[in-house]
Amino acid sequence: MELNHFETVNARIIRHTERTNMEAIFTDRIEDFFYHKPPSWDSQI
Asked: pTM of the prediction?
């Protein structure tokens, strides 16, 4: 019982960490897209 409870909590922490990391990566890419334009965009203006 103790071991199963520990494994469940541990799996939940790992799942939460992975989800949080994916959200952070996704947010960083969105911010890069909007706030750090590629140099080619500036040269076209």
From this structure: 0.41
Tell me the C-alpha distance between 36 and 23, whole Å: 19
What's the pLDDT tens digit per position in 7-27? Answer: 888 888 888 888 888 888 888
Q: How far is CA 40 from CA 17, 31, 32, 34, 35, in A?
A: 36, 18, 15, 14, 14
Query: Cα(25)–Cα(32) distance, rounded to whole angstroms?
Result: 10
Separation between Cα atoms, residue 5 and residue 37, nearest integer Å? 48
Distance from C-alpha of 16 to C-alpha of 34, rounded to nearest angstrom: 27
pLDDT at residue 22, rounded to an integer? 85
